[in-house]
């Protein structure tokens, strides 16, 4: 299923370099998604969306990532907020999902502190329970994409007894607490920021889930979207190599090999999306997609030669973006697998 017409794909591609390098919100690219109804596709019809199935959603996300990884990353964080809201009490679904389906509200997530970020330092964001069921939040939310653009943030915090909970923090609660966007090596336009929370009050009706142990489960916050975006990036690179091979026959074998690898991982992704994803299989796919993104982007740069090392050639952007998968939602099994692969020379 095609989400984007050729003209819309061209608009995303044309803005991809600026979205990656400049700290400006990629408004034009985001409007492309709004204009074609992308924002309603993951939301059930009873909340004003289209209720598309998981495989079609992954296909669409990949198409966007192939054109502009920054835009796709922003969308993935919004989709993570949608997925968590779908598990929330009905009043939170009714409050946010209809607005999100129409593009009138942007929600994002701040969950990495529960899974991969700063785990060796103790809880980054602490929740102090109050007698009326509310919580005061203190500490840091280290990675929040589009923090200064959001109507609200789905965040995870840790209680004194080590249990965790998910809450929805309205934007007005965070005035003066959102720092300037981080100077990332890539995807700068995502405006990913650190939030320093000080006595942020979360009312009982803004508690989304918990408190419980491991509120996000074994997979944490990444799910299949991390692999999908890696496949989208790899697909763009494989297509570049294929086109080069049309003029340089010596590249035909390597072009076929990367094209087959993209197709294989795409097939595995769709199989997992169709059913309830097994955590171990999902992590195994994430490892393979991360390794593929690293390899194919390096191959692109080598094939592009010196021209590829100069902006705005996409090869230099793809190489930088591939490194993001080494730090984004990269739990220990994935990290250990990548390190073992890098050490195998």
Question: Could you please describe the fold and organization of this structure?
Answer:
The chain has 345 residues and is of the alpha+beta class. The protein has a four-stranded mixed sheet with strand order 1-4-5-7. It has a three-stranded antiparallel sheet with strand order 2-3-6, with no helix packed on it. The mean pLDDT is 94.
Number of helices: 10
Number of strands: 7
Query: CATH superfamily of the largest domain, please?
Result: Butyryl-CoA Dehydrogenase, subunit A, domain 3
Unreliable runs: none
Task: Round the mean pLDDT to the nearest integer and report it.
Answer: 94
User: Order of strands in the sheet with the most strands?
Assistant: 1-4-5-7
Task: Tell me the CATH topology of the largest domain.
Answer: Butyryl-CoA Dehydrogenase, subunit A, domain 3
Largest sheet: 4 strands, mixed
Please identify the top-level CATH class of the largest domain: Mainly Alpha
The level of helicity is: 40-55%
SSE pattern:
HHHHHEEEEEEEHHHHH
Q: State the end-to-end distance.
A: 40 Å
State the CATH architecture of the largest domain: Up-down Bundle
User: What proportion of the residues form beta strands (DSSP E)?
Assistant: 5-15%
Write down the Rg: 20 Å
